[in-house]
Design a protein that fits this description.
0% of the residues lie in helices and 50% in strands. By secondary structure, the chain is mainly β. Strands 2, 4, 5, 6, 9, 10 and 11 form a seven-stranded mixed beta sheet that branches. Strands 1-3-8-7 form a four-stranded antiparallel beta sheet, with no helix packed on it. Strand 4 and strand 5 (44-50) form a beta hairpin.
């Protein structure tokens, strides 16, 4: 049984840092990603990490330089470090896992993720 379990969300102030984690179990994957969904908005891509072949990271343009996605292979866990928190970062953050690989696999697309975690709330106050 595949499980993706997020943790580490919470309340922060603008300018703070926060890290969310996603522990995966049940099968192997080629990539994992973070998406977020703010109230009244669609779920959007934030960051992805692919390790099929070479390790590659992808970021939503607006979070580059503030967000860092990383992986602990031994713990089968992916992290999202969020620095310089902004109120607009407030959302439920979901991790997702994919087995797709190769040039046809566009990791920022929700369609490439079959497995999802339950989400963890991040709230940023100004």
């Amino acid at each position: 049984q595949v499980q993706l379990v997020e943790s580490g969300g919470g309340l922060g102030q603008a300018g703070d840092s926060l890290r969310v984690s996603c522990a995966a179990s049940g099968r192997t994957f080629n990539a994992m990603a973070w998406f977020r969904q703010a109230p009244g908005k669609e779920r959007e891509f934030v960051a992805a990490l692919s390790w099929s072949g070479s390790t590659t990271t992808y970021y939503k343009n607006s979070v580059k330089g503030r967000f860092t996605i990383s992986r602990d292979n031994a713990k089968n866990t992916v992290y999202l470090q969020i620095n310089s928190l902004k109120p607009e970062d407030t959302a439920v953050y979901y991790c997702a896992a994919s087995r797709c690989s190769g040039p046809g696999c566009y990791l920022p697309s929700l369609a490439n993720y079959y497995y999802w975690g339950q989400g963890t709330q991040v709230t940023v106050s100004s």
